[in-house]
Design a protein that fits this description.
This protein has 329 residues and is an alpha/beta fold. The protein contains eleven helices and 18 strands. It has three domains: 5-46 and 188-263, 3-Layer(aba) Sandwich (Rossmann fold), CATH 3.40.50; 84-184, HAD superfamily/HAD-like (Rossmann fold), CATH 3.40.50.1000; 267-327, 2-Layer Sandwich (GMP Synthetase, Chain A, domain 3). 32% of the residues lie in helices and 22% in strands. One of its GO terms (cellular component) is cytoplasm.
Length: 329
């Protein structure tokens, strides 16, 4: 029996938005794969607007068997950072959801509502209800000496209607008002990945995600193999021009590819394509018309020896043109 990607690892660390779900619905193949997994699964999400128990309930409502212990949010990671830097019982201003405030209280912090209460730190996580008043209290606290921790710096949040404003965009407003940049707990920092692996006692984890500058960069920074799906934010062209720190081990159309042989998902000539260098450009010819096979074929040259590709990909022939058109804009 041929080996699959899953056979190489002892745990799966899944991103959620754009990887498992999008806009309140499961993405293709997620339910069957997650419910049939023979190795431990952990969900690691930069979205700090929900507590781990709420994330698990959403997964269960969508048909995926999940427990609170299988979820690690960036809010939890931010709390861990604060615990390393603050005295027990310190006061904190939490710019985020009620679940974030609950986590802070459970960790022993005193949550305050105003900069006038002299918080020792500001904890900043995503909350759709955040407005000018809350951002201003955070800015005042930081101007008066509070430490600044952010759950994540994602500038956008994938939703059914498109890319909405993410926590990083809100953080940018506070940074502009204070000149202080936060310490980020979430992806692409390696801490969440390392923490998730420790919770599972995993020695060979595989990080699975859709966003190169968070999911993949964080897995790479943690020294883990990474599996990129083309169902979310980062599409074909983003991979072609990806820097070394954001290059996944595997490139897949969707989660169903976890059951394929590893070699089929790594950069290399596939699908009867022919790729050649033409100065700083790459030419691709012939082939099956499969866009993912074309992508992995192009990556075999674009990613060679740590090379940073900055040329063009040129299609020679109808089949190659068809494949590149399917990459989108």
């Amino acid at each position: 029996m041929n080996s699959t990607v899953l056979d190489r690892y002892d745990s799966l660390l899944f991103d959620l938005d754009g990887t498992v779900w999008e806009g309140g619905r499961l993405l293709p193949h997620a339910e069957s794969l997650l419910n049939s997994s023979q190795i431990p699964v952990m969900y690691i999400t930069n979205n700090a607007s929900r507590g781990p128990e709420a994330v698990a309930e959403i997964l269960k409502s969508l048909g995926v068997s999940a427990t609170e212990q299988q979820v690690l949010t960036s809010a939890q990671a931010a709390i861990d950072l604060a615990l390393l830097n603050l005295e027990p019982g310190a006061s904190v201003y939490v710019l985020g959801a009620e679940s974030f405030k609950t986590l802070a209280v459970q960790a022993g912090f005193r949550v305050v509502d105003s900069a006038d209460d002299s918080p020792a730190a500001v904890l900043h996580g995503h909350n759709p209800e955040t407005g000018w008043s809350q951002l201003s209290e955070a800015a005042l606290s930081i101007q008066r000496g509070a430490l600044y921790f952010a759950s994540n710096l994602d500038t956008t949040l994938p939703m059914e209607r498109g890319l909405m404003v993410g926590n990083g965009s809100m953080v940018a407003a506070v940074v502009a008002a204070t000149g202080v940049h936060p310490t980020s707990a979430g992806k692409p920092e390696p801490a969440m990945f390392q923490s998730a692996a420790r919770r599972l006692s995993s020695e060979r984890p595989l990080a699975v995600g859709d966003r190169l500058n968070t999911d993949i960069a964080g897995g790479v920074a943690a020294g883990m193999d990474t599996f990129h799906v083309l169902t979310g934010v980062s599409k074909h062209w983003s991979l072609v021009y990806a820097p070394v720190t954001q290059r996944p081990t595997y490139v897949a159309k969707d989660l169903s590819s976890l059951s394929l042989a590893p070699e089929l998902l790594m950069p290399g000539i596939q699908g009867d394509y022919r790729v050649t260098l033409d100065g700083k450009d790459i030419r691709i010819a012939e082939g099956s018309g499969n866009p993912e096979a074309a992508l992995r074929s192009v990556l075999s040259l674009a990613w060679r020896d740590g090379f940073t590709f900055d040329g063009k990909v040129i299609a020679d022939g109808e089949k190659a043109e068809k494949a590149l058109k399917l990459w989108g804009a």
